[in-house]
Structure formats: C-alpha cells, structure tokens
Amino acid sequence: MNALELSGVQTRIGRYDVLHDISFSVPEGGVFVLLGRNGAGKTTTLRSIMGLRAPHAGSVRFRGEEIAGLHPSVIARRGVAFVPEDMGIFRSLTVAENMTLATLRGRFDGARLEWIHSLFPALKTFWNSTAGGLSGGQKQMLAVARAIIEPRALIMIDEPTKGLAPAIVDAMAEAFREIARDTTILLVEQNFEFARSLGRDMGVIEDGRIVHTGTMAAFAEDRALQTRLLSLSV
Amino acid sequence: MNQLSATMTRLGGVNLLPLIVALVALALIGAPSIWITLTVAGLAMGMMLFLMASGLSLVFGLMDVLNFGHSAFASLGAFVAATVLAHMSGWLGADSWVLNLGALAIAIAAAVGAGLIGGFLFETVIIRPVYRDHLRQILITMGALIVSEQLIIVVWGGSPLPVARPKILQGAFIWGDVSIENYRIFAVVLGVMVYAGLYVLLNRTRVGLLIRAGVENREMVEALGFRIGRLFIGVFMLGSALAAMGGAMWAGYQQLISPDMGAKMMIVVFIVVIIGGLGSIEGTLLGALLVGLIDNYVGFLLPKAALASNMVLMMVILMWRPNGLRPAAK
Ligand SMILES: Nc1ncnc2c1ncn2[C@@H]1O[C@H](COP(=O)(O)OP(=O)(O)O)[C@@H](O)[C@H]1O
Ligand SMILES: [Mg+2]
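Above: the input entities. Below: the structure tokens describing the complete assembly.
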C-alpha cells in the first residue's frame, strides 16, 4: 500500500491559485524526494497535506484514508509529522519542553529518547537550554527530533539542509537514513546531492503541477531532464 | 555607561523599572510616610489593573485577537459583586472577620462565575466569526463594549451604584505617621496570589506549556497534534474571569461604580498591555505596576497632569521599546 496518495490537489492562497494539479504517490518506507524550483509550490504541497492550508479540490489519502480537509491536529494524530521550512522551534521554551510538546501525553519512551540522543548528541548537551539559543544546525536537529520522538508513519521535512554547514548536512543525511528504516519520509530538498543520496523515488513540481515522477536512480542518470526541470548545471 | 547597563541587566533589567520609579518618587516627595501610602496605593491599583489586563494580553498572544471589549468583563464583575455584597450586609457588618471575608469571597466568586460564562458566550458568539480579521475584531468588540454598557443600564439602572466594604477591610492600618488603607493591602495580597497561581499554571503545567508554545507559534502546536481553538476558549474564559475578579475588587476599591466603568477602564487596560508587551503575563504585571505607581505619584505631585501621565508613560516606553517591555517571543 502507498503511504500517501495525492490526486488532483488544488490549493489557493488568498485569491491566488498556487497548486493547480498535484498528483503523486509515496510508497511505504524509504525517502521520497520532491524537487522543484523556488516558488514551484513544494512548501504549499506539504502544508496542504498537513491540513495547514486545506486544498479546495482533489484528494489526499494517507494509508488509504481521505485526510483532505481534516484539522492539522487530527492529521498529526493519525501519524503525520511535519518539519516546516522555518523549523517551527519554540524559541522561548527549552529543548526538553520542545520535545515534551511533541509527545501526545507528555511522557517520553526512554529507549526512543536515548536513540534520538544518539542521533543528535547536541540535543542531550543542551537539553535544558532555551531553544532560541541553539545554532541553526542544532535547531534543525531539534525540529527533526520532535517529529520522531513518537513513532509516526510519515514525516514531511521541508528543506532541512538550507543554510547548514557541510558537516551537519552529512550528519543529517545519516540520521535520515536511520529514520527511514521504519518510517516513510517525504523530503523537499534543493540540495540535489543530498536528495540524490537519500531518495528512492522522486517527483518534480513546476508551477503548481507535478511534471515528473520516477525513481531517483533514473532521474540522476538523465542530465537532460535535470537541466530542463531544475536548471541544474551539468 | 555600558557597565551600568550590564549591571542593570544582571539585576533584573526592565523588572527594576517600578523600583526605580518608586525611588525617584521618594526623592521628589520627600516625606517617607506619604511615599509609603502612595506606593501601597500604587501597588494595589497595579495588581487590580493586572487582573483586568492579563486576559487581554494572553488572548492576543495566542490568537492575535484584539478584544476592545475585554474591560466589559471588569464592569460585569463589578456589578455582580456589588449586587451580591448588597444582599449580604449582615455578614459584611458582622464582628467576625470570617463572615466579613466570606461575604467578599462569595461576591468575588460570583463575579468570576459571571466572567467565565460571559467569556464563553463572548468568544463563541462574537469573537469566533472574526478570527484573523483585525479590523472586524476592533469594530465588533468595540460595539460589544457599548452594548454591554447598555445591558448593565437595563439590569442595574443608569445611576451609580454604591459598593459596600466588609467591616474588616474598612479603615486603615496605622503605623507611626504612616497610614495604609486595609483594602489596599487586601488587593495587593490577593493580586499577588492570583499572579502566583497564573505563573504556576503557565510555567509548571502542560496546559501552560501549550499556551506558551501557542503564543509563539500557533500552527506548529496544531501540527504537533493539539487543538489551539479549544485551548483558546479556555484561555479566553480564564482571562474574562480574571477581568471580572479585578473589576469586583475595583468596585470595592472605588466604592461607587457606574455603567461606563468598562469604557473608562478600556483605555487604561490597553495602555497596560501595550507597555508590558503583548502575550506575556510578566510584561502585563510590569506594565500594570508602572501605571499604578505613576498614577498615584503624579496624582500627588502634579494633580493636573495625572490624566496625561499614563499616555506619556506609554509613549516614552514605546519610543524606547516599540514592542513593549517584555513581549512574548513570536
Ligand atoms: N502567503 C502567500 N501569499 C501569496 N502567495 C504565496 C504565499 N505563499 C506562497 N505563495 C506563492 O505560492 C507559490 C508557491 O510557494 P511555495 O509553496 O512556498 O513554493 P516553494 O516551496 O516550492 O518554493 C509561490 O509562487 C509563492 O509566491
Ligand atoms: Mg518552500
């Protein structure tokens, strides 16, 4: 079964039609990468899935059930986690408080917390510090950690490597590989190297429409397609 | 100069402002006995303003809702409490402090109950349809303030209503040549207790954590699986109940209330939250204490300037800190 299926999704922001026709399927497990130029509609697609910007037409099926139009909190409780482009960290709260809020009942599963600390040791170091004082990379780690503190079926991550130092990007890739073992990741990414190293399947959005879907392996081979869809220099 | 400001920050930064204002006032007033009287009066007024304003600040912080009708709850609380007190003259005048304070407790509880119910109705009927639309919020909540005043006239009549004080809170506490009204001490004590309760709620409980997180980033709280809307009704009702409580205490303080109390208080309450910075109760407390103290000091030193003093204070603070003294992080 597919983890997620979008078909004919259309979304407006104010008076503007931003998504015209978004249709793609994310298979269960692994990393699905959504590519596209700036302003193509990637963020809006993730927000539409999360219910933060409800589509006005089309369908969003999560594990076979329609979720379009549901409240974001309901979609979250069904098992979808979202790491927004701006990371959505509560800066005035501590790292610990940020993490507690990401659990539905305010209690940690000890083993899982330990696993997260081993993925992102900095979070353990700064556990009781105010999140606003973390570096950009640490904030991104916290944002991802929140999304996995309890088991979720699907994690959507919007441009996690933006502005991060290369060493941190590598650590992030390592963590994503580990997370993807038992969770589906829907990743929006501009860093093509990063995306290629992680993605199994992929899609490209252009001007609010899905214009290509396929495997990452095939896309990575096809320089002409890359140039046409993403203007990547060869 | 830099060293001075660093030291100030270490000692508490903007939290020191009320202390600084009090010390400057002491220098200007000279006589310590008068200064103590004015300071306690200022603190009492500040605590009551805090109660009346804190809900407004939280409501804005959590949902960006501008409620220009917030002080209607203070007015409602005042009239409900006055009515209850009028029916309990036996207890109020008794020689037992238990009966005295019992009557007051019942009156305040009635005001709080009215605030909770009024807050629920106000949120669902008036605020809900205008989420995310500031212009309509301002228009409809100002309208609601006017309507609430008319409703009070319908129920309680248009003439000012005298408010009875319990016997034990009449008179003053005399110490040397210092005299402090008992009611003011009561207002300070009760205000501090409510502030402490709110502080614990916001900083030591999960609901409080959700509120603080929601003030900072509402969408993210929803994406983590929580319904801000439900939390918001709770916060709105709590804020309305606190305003009603503040209004009830204000009624006993003034001993005479009139239906235009809500409209009169609205300006002061807005000045308090704007000075303090929206979304944080620490900021609201700071703003309320500053307004209370300065109102009393200026009222003594320059009676003619008393009316303008709050406005001037607000302008000076906004020029220095455009977001107020201690706004919540956004
Ligand atoms: N709040 C908004 N108001 C109006 N237009 C918006 C808003 N947010 C995004 N858009 C427009 O929607 C389009 C898609 O935006 P977005 O989904 O953020 O693209 P991407 O994430 O692919 O860069 C862009 O053309 C952008 O200008
Ligand atoms: Mg984007």
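Note for the figure: Chain A touches chain B at residues 50, 52, 71-73, 76-77, 81-82, 84, 88, 90-93, 97, 100-102, 104, 106, 132, 146 (CB under 8 Å).
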